[in-house]
């Protein structure tokens, strides 16, 4: 199995202590990443099959919460990139 993931720590030296990532944190991130990738592959595989009762199921609200009607998902990579750019500008 080929493990292809972004390594969070390494040659880059952190600019503050909040950016220090422990090996346990990195292991958790890898676990979540690979598990999510597996679920997404299984969902794509099961989409075309006739028996949709097997494999992962996508959750859909039967009665959506009206308070969440204007909810927009956040791209965390974009937020991090903007925060990094802002911190570099303030130096």
From TrEMBL:
This is MAPK regulated corepressor interacting protein 1. Belongs to the MCRIP family. Keywords: Cytoplasm, Nucleus. It holds the Pfam family FAM195. InterPro entries: MCRIP. It is found in: Cytoplasm, Stress granule; Nucleus. One of its GO terms (cellular component) is nucleus. Residues 77-91 have a biased composition (Basic and acidic residues). It comes from Phoxinus phoxinus (Eurasian minnow). Residues 1-20, 46-91 are annotated as: Disordered. Residues 1-19, 46-56 have a biased composition (Polar residues).
